[in-house]
Design a protein that fits this description.
One of its GO terms (biological process) is osmosensory signaling via phosphorelay pathway. By secondary structure, this protein is an alpha+beta fold. It has 32 helices and 30 strands.
């Protein structure tokens, strides 16, 4: 324990970041601290003098807090900082170092806490740690402590955070990522060394920092509790983020937990990778040192054996030249020793090989002792001796006694060898070279710790003191630290039979690199999983909060009366059920408001319309709900001026508004004496009798329409399913019934004053032709007596009745109900009594819209009879012409049999025959047209249209080939077979006429295609050609009898003008239609559309009016 560290001021300096990534990390962390300071400055009230004084006192306390009381705890000794001297590593606990920061945060606020933290880091880095990262490290601590003690949020967690001791614990935990980043960026070395230091070696410093924060938090916690007046406390507590935002609540819980889990996983991954790398390195080094330690005894034993063999008496008895020769032979026989030296009894050298330098032979003290011992009877000795100059291997001296035949010692022999040149040491040296390949060093040490051999020159052979007392032989792989701060992994193995050791050591960075290689895949996967998990977590939270925000917005909309924004409820979870509850509330409120709006619209409609038909419509529409099939009102006839007598008037709306109109009378009578009639299930309550053969509702509700004391009718709703009527529904419908009664009373008053229309009726009465006037709803307004007196025209001459109830002729109904589009529509109408009228329907326009229709009919029965007479005369004449034409053709062809005709005569005969054929064709067409129009019943049968068309194609294929025309046929695309009910002969004739015309008016090398296209219960035949086309002026009259185009190209082709008229008649006889699309010079498309099924009987009226030739331009 150091009470006062005055020596800190003796050596102020900073270690700058050792690499570019260190600078990047330091600048990034400094930028974050300054960014936090900038945001704090904008909200700080640091301008008060009291806070300035507190801040200055805190700054003055910083040096004192650092110098006073440093505790040295041996259990918190951290690993050495890689590649830095050991003396720069501080492991002591500065007890008071955090006091100034807590003092500034508790008494002055957030910004003074941050500045005090930066100043503390600056002072520590300059005098204690010499680390530039101390500035940002303590800056973050000051920022975190200031935030913890100055925040003004409520809830128990934030209350605990405002306590100095609780804040110190939370800040220490939150400081962990900053500590890891600082540990990683602050030290020199490669990536693996820095990662290992940050994740595995520097945890004691983190504990030291926690103890320092704990001392500060504990001291100021006592002040907080016992001197609360001195402590800065918030005036008003604010809702915490987890109270104001579900997203914040979720993130404040999950993000720290996820970060902590991520850090734990990274630490665990690195620890596992480090242990695996350490085991791999230990296994490698142990294998190499074991090989070396096991091969060295053989080297020593071989040397001892050889030196004993070489110790022969001849070495001291023979001449020098002979001894030289013996020594040379011994060395060359077994290349073990580098030098052999022979000594006499007095220990003086007699001879040596190699002889160079033998006279100046210098013996080591061990060799001198060994020679003396050998002369005294020790048989063999082994001594390590220093190396030759410039060599990295020490020498080994083997000494043996030379005895004569009687066993008397006559001298000694000394053999010197080294580890590099001796072949018996090569296995051991190769094993130690393996250590070098793994990035380390290998050593062979003697019993005094002297280096006998080393794999590199990095360590001098004389530096034996670094091994003395430090080797842990047989302890496996252990850590050591070099004087330069390099962490080493060391493994020592005892040589068998000798007190020598084989030592292998590698820098810890090698194992760290292996650990990094092992850990990187897992770290990458963790990063990916953490990133993906974070993104998913934020996404899920975002979805949940977005749905809640939508619900909040919807609540705001509802509070503002905006009820048109539907709420999407996805899923059946809590949020989904909440959304459904909101949607139910919205729909309920909207329904109430819609009812009020409907009542307003109804009131406005009743006030704005005196005509009951207009005033009653909003009421019926308002009464109609989703389950209601028909909403109807039945009223007395006095509400409309057009009706006389006791007939009731009624209107209906809904899916089937007139489905239950037959019950109007019963309900009208029932409600004379009741204001309300509610029948939830008509099968149980039979207040309303069912009409035989008519549908009957499953439930109904009716309201009597009373205004003052007068009964006007009933408003009733019919349902096709049983229904229980709620009080809200009954109340709303009763309000509508009151409005209906008011509308009926107003209309009755209006009808009684409607006199002006009588004048118009008088004018129409004087018109001799039938005239009918309808409103825009196709309800009868007026009709003159002439229309009433036409038999079979009018079925119910009652104003206000629908068109279908007034007019008997279906064709006239279709003509009147059709769209006019600001034009007059005309058509021949045949009534059931045989009369034929030419009907014209014109729109009655108001200012800019149609307010009604007027229909005028002219009797053209006489003209139709004249036309029929003409057709009969034409048919008779045509029939009478057939016999003379046949005779004329026969005699013309027989002229060639009487005798040879000259060329001119042959030309005349050919012209006669050609003219007769044209007249015959014309007569046949006239007869065919007459038969078709005469109303002869069709011979209906099931016909396959594809077979008919294929037959016609085969028939006309030669004719088309003569003009090189491509005649093709195209059936339905789905390939299905279709059947049509038609007169086969007439269908063939119509198609033949169309195909013949197409080929006739198509130029050579053209194309004609016949297509059959199915439709909805109808079948369309299309004949396409790319011929001369039809002029737009000819299109309207193209299907008239005897009409031919005035164009020269058309007159060049022979024809009667009856072919298309026949096609039209055949189509109309089959209740079909025919039309044409054509462009002049580009070709034409003729369409003939026929129904798939025909009625069983076909009347003359159906022939005339069943189909109309329409032209599409």
């Amino acid at each position: 324990m150091n009470l006062f560290n005055i020596q800190l001021f003796q050596n102020p300096f900073f270690y700058l970041p050792f690499h570019s990534s260190g600078w990047v990390g330091w600048l990034a962390m400094l930028a974050l601290v300054l960014l936090g300071g900038g945001r704090i400055w904008r909200i700080s009230d640091f301008r008060r003098p009291v806070k300035w004084n507190v801040f200055l006192v805190a700054l003055l306390l910083v040096p004192l807090a650092i110098l006073l009381l440093e505790l040295q705890l041996s259990i918190l000794q951290s690993g050495a900082v890689p590649n830095l001297p050991l003396e720069v590593n501080r492991t002591g606990v500065l007890v008071f170092v955090a006091f100034p920061i807590f003092f500034a945060a508790g008494l002055a606020g957030l910004l003074p806490s941050l500045l005090t933290g930066l100043f503390t880091g600056l002072f520590l880095g300059l005098f204690a740690t010499h680390d530039l990262f101390s500035i940002v490290e303590w800056g973050f601590l000051g920022l975190f402590i200031g935030i913890a003690l100055s925040q003004s949020y409520r809830t128990a967690f934030y209350k605990m955070l405002r306590h100095p001791l609780g804040g110190a614990v939370i800040v220490w935990i939150a400081y962990l990522p900053i500590f890891l980043f600082v540990s990683f960026f602050a030290i020199p070395g490669n990536l693996a060394e820095r990662l290992d230091f940050a994740l595995a070696q520097n945890w004691p410093q983190y504990i030291v920092r926690g103890i320092e924060l704990g001392f500060g938090g504990l001291f100021f916690e006592l002040i907080y509790l016992f001197l609360p007046a001195l402590w800065k406390k918030p005036q008003q507590l604010l809702p915490s983020p987890n109270e104001t935002s579900l997203q914040s609540r979720f993130l404040l819980f999950t993000v720290p937990l996820a970060v902590l889990l991520f850090v734990i996983l990274i630490l665990a991954d690195w620890w596992v990778a480090g242990q695996a790398a350490r085991q791999m390195m230990e296994s490698r080094l142990q294998g190499l040192t074991r090989v070396a330690s096991q091969s060295l005894p053989y080297f020593l034993e071989s040397g001892q054996s050889l030196i004993i063999d070489f110790a022969k008496p001849d070495l001291v008895q023979k001449s020098n030249s002979e001894v030289q020769l013996l020594l040379m032979e011994d060395i060359r026989a077994v290349p073990y020793f580098r030098q052999l030296v022979v000594f006499d009894k007095g220990g003086q050298p007699l001879n040596a090989y190699p002889a160079e330098g033998s006279m100046d032979l210098r013996l080591s003290p061990d060799e001198e002792v060994g020679i003396a011992l050998a002369l005294n009877g020790v048989i063999v000795q082994v001594y390590p001796i220093p190396p030759y100059p410039g060599e990295k291997s020490a020498q080994v001296a083997f000494i043996a006694s030379i005895k004569d035949e009687t066993g008397i010692i006559q001298g000694t022999i000394l053999g010197r060898t080294d580890f590099e040149s001796n072949p018996f040491t090569q296995p051991a040296l190769s094993a130690l070279e393996g250590v070098l390949e793994n990035g380390g060093e290998g050593f062979i040490l003697d019993e005094q710790g002297n280096i006998l051999y080393q794999t590199s020159n990095a360590t001098p052979l004389t530096a034996a003191d670094q091994f003395l007392g430090n080797l842990q032989v047989g302890a496996g792989l252990y850590e050591d630290t070099s004087p330069t701060g390099t962490r080493l992994l060391v493994l020592a193995e005892q040589v068998t039979g000798r007190p020598w050791q084989v030592v292998a050591r590698v820098p810890a960075s090698v194992a760290q690199q292996i650990a990094l290689n092992i850990a990187i895949p897992t770290l990458v996967i963790l990063l990916i999983l953490f990133g993906t998990g974070s993104a998913l977590m934020f996404g899920i939270v975002r979805v949940v909060t977005r749905n809640l925000l939508k619900l909040t917005d919807q609540a705001v909309h509802i509070s503002l009366g905006e009820l048109d924004h539907a709420i999407e409820s996805k899923g059946n979870d809590e949020i989904g059920r909440l959304a459904k509850a909101f949607e139910t509330m919205r729909i309920s409120l909207k329904k109430r408001l819609e009812e009020l709006n409907q009542l307003l619209v109804v009131s406005q409609g009743v006030a704005a319309n005196l005509e009951i038909s207009e005033a009653i419509q909003p009421i019926l529409k308002a009464a109609l709900d989703e389950d209601c099939v028909s909403a109807r009102v039945v009223l007395i006839q006095e509400v409309q001026l057009d009706l006389e007598g006791d007939q009731l008037v009624s209107w209906g709306v809904g899916k089937q508004p007139d489905l239950y109109h037959h019950l109007d009378g019963q309900i009208f009578e029932q409600m004379r004496s009741h204001h309300l009639l509610s029948i939830p299930n008509t099968s149980r309550v039979r207040r309303i009798s069912a009409v035989g053969g008519q549908p009957h509702p499953a439930a109904l509700i009716a309201f009597g329409l009373f205004f003052e004391t007068t009964y006007y009718g009933a408003l009733w709703l019919a349902y096709d399913k049983p229904k229980n009527f709620s009080e809200d529904e009954v109340r709303f419908l009763n309000t509508l019934a009151s409005e209906a009664a008011l509308a009926a009373a107003n209309s009755r008053l209006y009808a009684s004053a409607e006199i002006g229309r009588r004048r118009l009726e008088a004018v129409l009465t004087s018109v001799p032709e039938p005239v009918l006037v309808f409103d825009e709803k196709d309800r009868l307004l007026l009709l003159n007596p002439a229309a009433i007196h036409v038999p079979g025209l009018i079925s119910a001459a009652l104003p206000g009745r629908p068109l279908q109830d007034v007019v008997s002729s279906e064709n006239l109904i279709r003509l009147i109900s059709g769209s006019l589009e600001d034009r007059i529509a005309s058509r021949e109408i045949q009534l059931s009594n045989g009369k034929v009228f030419y009907a014209s329907v014109a729109p009655v326009m108001g200012e800019d819209y149609q307010v009604g229709k007027v229909c005028v009919l002219r009797d053209i029965t006489h003209y139709k009879e004249l036309d029929a007479l003409k057709s009969e005369i034409v048919a008779t004449v045509s029939h009478d012409l057939r016999t003379p034409l046949t005779l004329l053709r026969g005699y013309s062809t027989m002229l060639n049999m009487i005798g040879e005709l000259n060329e001119q005569q042959q030309i005349y005969v050919n012209k006669i025959v050609s003219t007769v054929e044209d007249m015959t064709h014309l007569v046949n067409n006239l007869l065919d047209l007459s038969r078709i129009e005469s109303g002869i019943p069709l011979k209906l049968e099931e016909v396959d249209p594809m077979i008919v068309v294929e037959k016609i194609i085969r028939q006309y294929q030669p004719h088309a080939s003569q003009k090189n025309i491509q005649l093709t046929f195209e059936g339905p695309q789905d390939g299905r077979r279709l059947m049509i009910k038609a007169d086969l002969a007439l269908l063939q004739q119509a198609l033949i006429n169309l195909v013949d015309n197409a080929i006739k008016y198509t130029r050579n090398d053209g194309q004609v295609m016949v297509r059959v296209r199915p439709g909805n219960e109808r079948l369309t035949f299309e004949v396409h050609d790319n011929g001369i086309g039809i002029a737009p002026l000819d299109l309207p009259r193209l299907f008239e009898k005897f009409y031919r185009s005035g164009r020269r190209e058309a007159y060049e082709k022979r024809g009667s003008g009856l072919g298309l008229a026949i096609v039209k008649s055949i189509a109309e006889r089959h209740h079909g239609r025919v039309w044409v699309d054509s462009q002049l010079g580009k070709g034409s498309i003729f369409y003939m559309e026929l129904p798939v099924d025909q009625p069983l009987t076909i009347t003359e009226e159906a022939v005339r009016n069943g189909g109309v030739a329409n032209l599409k331009k």
